[in-house]
Write a structure and sequence with these properties.
Elements: H1 3-12, E1 24-31, E2 36-43, E3 46-51, E4 59-64, H2 65-72, H3 78-83, E5 87-91, H4 93-102
Parallel strand pairs: 1-4
Antiparallel strand pairs: 1-2, 2-3, 4-5
Length: 109
């Protein structure tokens, strides 16, 4: 599973109704071999994916490729990754908590 496939799956699993009133840009910095930078923008109940660095993200998530794939595959819970320090988060924590209801895929949980 490539990183791009994981993020595309998040966009496909986007729940527009749950995203009502939510406007954010979330930056993902995936570290380690095969890592990369992606961002997701949520605005007007729509979701778009970009590669690289977002200009002004409200939330930045930094995690190893290995751990991000484990979350996407359901072998690691996002909350566990955060609580154990495998996932570093900077910015609006409300956006982090809202992701679970808006992205109906394992990668968004």
């Amino acid at each position: 599973m490539t990183l791009k496939e994981i993020f595309e799956g998040m966009v496909k699993g986007f729940d527009a109704e749950e995203a009502k009133g939510w406007k954010t840009v979330i930056q993902y910095n995936i570290t380690g071999e095969g890592g990369g930078k992606f961002y997701i923008e949520v605005k007007d109940q729509k979701c778009s994916l970009g590669e690289g660095e977002a200009e002004n993200p409200k939330l930045t998530i930094t995690i190893s490729r290995e751990d991000w794939v484990a979350i996407a595959e359901g072998r690691l819970e996002g909350q566990e990754a955060f609580m154990t320090g495998k996932m570093k988060v900077e910015g609006d924590m409300n956006d982090l908590f809202r992701m679970a209801s808006v992205f109906r895929t394992r990668a968004g949980r």
